[in-house]
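May I ask you to review the protein record following this short note?
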Amino acid sequence: MMAKNTVCLWYDGTAEEAARFYAETFPDSSVRAVRRAPGDYPAGKEGNVLTVEFTVMGIPCIGLNGGPAFTPDEAFSFQVATDDQAETDRLWNAIIDNGGQASACGWCKDKWGLSWQITPRALIEAFTDPDRAAAKRAFDAMMTMSKIDIAKIEKARRG
C-alpha cells in the first residue's frame, strides 16, 4: 500500500537507476515497485519506466521519469545524520565516486542533481554547545570544509 505522504522526485528517464543506487548505498532503503507507462506520454513511450516506488532511509519516495523540463536544486535535500567519520566518509564517497559533486559544509549532489547533506551528529552537537564561543569555533571550522572532518570540528570546538 502506498504511503499517505510520499516525496516525489523528478528524473529525466533515470528514476530506476537512482532508486537502485540509493537502495544499495543507504541503510533502510529499498526499491519497492517499478511501474511502466500504459501509453505514450510527453517524456516517453508506452512500456517505459514511468515511476519507481522506493524508500531512502525509511522515507517513502516516488521517482517520476518526467523528462528534462525540471531539474532538482538545493531547495530540497536529504540530510543524513552520521554517527562517525567512517560512516560520513562512506556515504560522501559513495555519492561523489558515483558521478556526484562536492559542495560546501557537508553538502554534495548526486549524479542526478539531488542534494545531500552528510551531517555528522558531532557537528550538530558542536553547534548546540552551551558554550557559544565553542559553537562558533566549530561553525567557523565547518565553513572551510567540503566533506565534514569530525576531528577538526572537535578540535575547533575545544579551542
In short: The chain has two domains: 1-68, 72-159. The radius of gyration is 18 Å.
